[in-house]
Amino acid sequence: MARRKKNEPIDDFTIADTMNNIIGNKVRLKVKNDAQKEFAKLITDKEIVIASGPAGTGKAQPLNSDILTPKGWVKMGDVKVDDFIIGEDGKEHKIIEIHPQGEIDIYEVSFSDGTTTKCSGEHLWYTETSDDKPNKISLPKVGTVKTTIDIMNSLYVNNGHKNHMIPITKPVNFKHSEVKIDPYILGFLLSDGLKMGGVKLFAGDTDIIDIISERLEDSIKIEKISNDSFIYNLTTESSCNENPILTELEVLDLYNCKSEDRFIPKSYLFNSIEVRLDILRGLMDIDGTISSDGYHISYTSISKKLIDDVRFIIESLGGITHLNTKKSFYKYKDEVKIGCDLAYNLTLVLPPDINPFKLKRKMSLVIPKNDSKPKRYISNVNYIGKDKCQCISVNNPSNLYLTNNFIVTHNSYVSIARALELLYNKSNKLEKILIYKPAIEVEEKHGFLPGDLQEKIAPYVESSLCIVDKLIGRAARERMMMEGLIEIKALAYIRGSSIDNSILIMEEAQNMSTNQMKTLLTRIGDNSKFIISGDMDQSDRYSNIKECGLYDAMNRLKPVEDIGFFEFKIEDIVRNSIITKILSYYTPKMDDKYPKKELKKRIIPHVPAEDRAKLCEGVDKKESLEKVYKTPWWLKIRNNIHW
């Protein structure tokens, strides 16, 4: 199919053709449960659908799932609103909503590195697949959002290769805290230094001794036991002085700890990137291996706990691991002996900019390879039964957070796929998607914000654009905006317009006033659909939610058969020709609420606009009028307000 030329009339080259060039066959909406089927039917049958309820219904994880927080792992059932969790960007993000889901179907998702997690069938994942490729334009491959069920039905491509790759977390930057033993030295000691009779180092490589010497406190010295020995003692200048390293090892329960029982203290695990990387390098310089070509890196220990801790550090740095077991062995009188203990071998892959070694002879073998970045594929999805679940919303623009093994999973998500799907369908003859949100912080006075109108509105619709980005990719979304297929609009300037042949998406409707809702609904023109949604428990404008426009519309307009109502939260869609019916339900009640003599009093003809703006800033219209009329005469003179 030919691509539309620049300046070619859009009528001659259909919207669907343009979308096909930009996003191909990427947008597919599949209903997976009874609630979604009911909602989809409403969209088909009704001209206007107004939805309310908690965000992201159905996108859930069991209450016993691990969620990563700045202080460690916490169970999903124990997190609370305003708690901080870690996002896929490695940063802290606040939980803004929690939505219990009751007992629902649960699936176990397995990954190519042997890790697993549990979630609902409607839980959302951001994955890259063989289908996530731009069509006939040179755009980079981008992923899209899919449900667990979608993934289960498309696990492998025709050649038998795994199809769904999920993003890997950026290095997690836990808050730095001071530790009493240098991290690199502790890593070395955990590998081969926690022996009875003091603090000893077993090292045949003088470079390691040089590294440790540079990191020791002035009060501690390193001494070789004998010239023909590879054993060193860490002692104080005077035998009367307490050895701070020995003392801290005792506090950490590591002194005289057997090899099979060793572990990394929590104070080092949940610390800054630098601390975690240093302790990893101390471990790897002794017990880590690297192949001559630099491709294969591994770490071996007979302590399962230590292996789990090393795995934690690697995954927290944005890497992945594969765990294997084997029988341990050792040499005695030049003869290899099989040990009694089981050895755990951890193969690891880290981001190209992270070198797991500090020892020069090992460090130099590591060749950063952009083509072998850590990748985690979904290998299997199995139904395992029912369990109590909940979903969470976090203030992360990407909507992603970390669950067990640093697996990146999606946050609560209201699908805009329906709007894109409708736009893609030629038979609908729709021309564009309009995205609105109430800008309540500046009471819709966008002139107080820097930049042109689009720049003023952008902060309020950013989360909606992020959703579009996750569905079709940012490059495709920007192309659609350039083509005029997606527009962001200011609610303040909607009065007087008639919206034809468009899909209007209005989110955060719980922050709209009754008058704004009425104005919005009566702008619907020919062949248009509206998507109006909000969570009435999350209003930033009304302490009494009954005052908001969404609540008012959900109750006032219930008798209008042409409007569909859905108390849940997915997305809503609308069409046309019912403005008269809407107005008939607003007008009589407005007259009852505000008698004519009261309405006359509400007019302020002589107060200068500048003074009215100062009085009204940050409050609702009714409150601001009361503020003007209740101002004493002497205060009016002092404030230079002339009547």
Could you tell me the number of beta strands? 25
Instruction: Indicate how many domains the architecture comprises.
Output: 4
Q: What portion of residues belong to β-strands?
A: 15-25%
Major beta-sheet overview: 6 strands, parallel
CATH architecture name of the largest domain:
3-Layer(aba) Sandwich
Strand order of the largest sheet: 22-21-23-24-1-25
Overall SS class: alpha+beta
By DSSP (H or I, 4+ residues per run), the number of helices equals 20
**What is CATH's topology name of the largest domain?**
Rossmann fold
Low-confidence stretches: 1-12, 54-58, 411-415, 441-446, 569-577, 587-629, 632-643
Provide a descriptive summary of the structure in words.
With 643 residues, this protein is an alpha+beta fold. The strands form 7 sheets. It has a 6-stranded parallel sheet, with helices on both faces. Strands 2, 5, 6, 7, 10 and 18 form a 6-stranded antiparallel sheet that branches. It has a 4-stranded antiparallel sheet with strand order 14-15-17-16. It folds into 4 domains: 15-28 and 416-592, Rossmann fold (3-Layer(aba) Sandwich), CATH 3.40.50; 56-168 and 375-410, Endonuclease - Pi-scei, Chain A, domain 1, CATH 2.170.16; 183-372, Roll (Endonuclease I-creI); 597-638, no CATH class. The N and C termini lie far apart (67 Å).
